Sequence to fold (195 residues):
Amino acid sequence: MSKISITPSIVLEYLFCPRFIYYMTCLKIPQQEDKRYKVQKGRRVHDKKSSQNTDYLRKQIGVTDKKINQKLISAKHSIHGEVDEVLFLDDGTAAPLDYKYAKYKKRIFKTYKYQAVMYAMMIEDNFGCDVNKAFIVYTRSKNKLIKIDITAGDKAEVKNILNKVIKIIANNYYPKKTSYKKRCQDCCYRNICIK
Fold:
């Protein structure tokens, strides 16, 4: 078992470009994302949501109880993080709920899905109940609630990604860059990235 424990945010950076992991974790070069407007605004929205309606249960989706801002860890999967809400449902399962400072564009981005799957894996390990769905609230679309189905295949795919991220960190491995060249234009590491 790896002693490395990574967050869903690290996996999202990997999905943007695998080299982010090398620069951030191996070379310890920060990307200064805290200065970006959307990051700051998203954090303010999150803080506001976590203090509002703390007793409100979304009964229309079968919520019987919830935990807010729940810190989770899974040694089994080498991940840790904090989910906005853990929802306990009337069918005996649980589900993560995540607030996104984003507009719903009639599709679920892969990054959102993988983040939800990681939360699901941690909830299963921490609370001992099945997680086969997750929810996202799009705060810039009038708090639209969207359900995401989570399958065993989704969990296997995330485990594969986790193994790749751990390989980069554990071995100081310099991976290939993203195949999406447009991402390089706005990358904070573009001046030091070896082409």
Observations:
- The helical segments are 8-16, 19-26, 37-51, 110-127, 152-171, 181-185.
- The first helix runs from residue 8 to 16.
- Strands lie at 63-74, 79-89, 94-100, 133-138, 144-149.
